[in-house]
Amino acid sequence: MQYPNGKKSSAYTKLKSSQTVYSNRGMSLEDDINDTNQYYLTHNIAIIHKKPTPVQIVHVDYPKRSAAVIKEAYFKQASTTDYNGIYRGRHIDFEAKETKNKHSLPLHNIHQHQIDHMKQIVDHGGICFLLIRFSLSQETFLFPAEKLFLYWDHQFHGGRKSIRYETVKKLGYIIPIRFQAKVDYLAVIDEYYMENGGTTNGR
């Protein structure tokens, strides 16, 4: 992989003009979250959006003054988390991870800059977490960022480089599956994060 200066960079993935991108295929957790967020938005429950993947454009052709054709571009590595927004006056910020490993979630799926961002959110009073889906069992958990930080830091001192399924189940919160809100993570936030508990806006 070559970056425009000729050096290789893991932070960029080249997009070919003739290449069809299939990066969203099979990403059922992302699809379910997006559908859930749309339900929240439509019913005025919360405003949560997926952040667009940043793209660096390096070569553009102008065959006509009124048209531009992108010839070369690169996906930039996301510098923060997948989703953020607001719910009941609180900032919500989270990353979504899906794994086919039935025993654990590998930590290499997460990056240091994302951990740094999540720590900043927590320090400023935001609600921050991972949504983890074990695809073989079709179980989805909300795993608090504060718990994640412990395992992330521990791996650099001889600890495991993954979080066991049993740990996620013990320290996290299973997400209820509903017909309209397929990944109803706000139900968990209502119960465990909000001082008054309960639900709002008829959800």
Q: Walk across the major sheet and give the strand order.
A: 2-5-6-8-9-11
**CATH architecture field of the domain at 28-52 and 79-192:** 3-Layer(aba) Sandwich
Give the oligomeric state: single chain
Return residue spans where pLDDT drops below 50 for at least 5 consecutive residues.
Answer: 1-27
Helix percent reads 25-40%
Output the CATH topology of the domain at 28-52 and 79-192. Trna Endonuclease, Chain: A, domain 1
Q: What is the number of strand segments?
A: 11
The helix count comes to 5
State which percent range the strand residues make up: 25-35%
What does the secondary structure layout of this molecule look like, with pairings?
Elements: E1 12-16, H1 28-42, E2 47-50, E3 55-64, E4 67-76, E5 83-87, E6 90-99, E7 104-106, H2 112-123, E8 127-134, E9 139-144, H3 145-154, E10 162-164, H4 165-171, E11 173-174, H5 185-192
Parallel strand pairs: 6-8
Antiparallel strand pairs: 1-4, 2-5, 3-4, 5-6, 7-10, 8-9, 9-11
Helix pairs in contact: 2-3
Question: Quick recap of the structure?
Answer:
The protein is α+β, with helices and mostly antiparallel strands and 203 residues long.
Structure write-up:
The protein is of the alpha+beta class and 203 residues long. It has a domain at 28-52 and 79-192: Trna Endonuclease, Chain: A, domain 1 (3-Layer(aba) Sandwich). The chain has 5 helices and 11 strands. The strands form 3 sheets. A 6-stranded mixed sheet has the order 2-5-6-8-9-11, with helices on both faces. A 3-stranded antiparallel sheet has the order 1-4-3, with no helix packed on it. Strands 7-10 form a two-stranded antiparallel sheet. Strand 8 and strand 9 form a beta hairpin. Helix 2 packs across helix 3. The radius of gyration is 19 Å and the shape is globular.
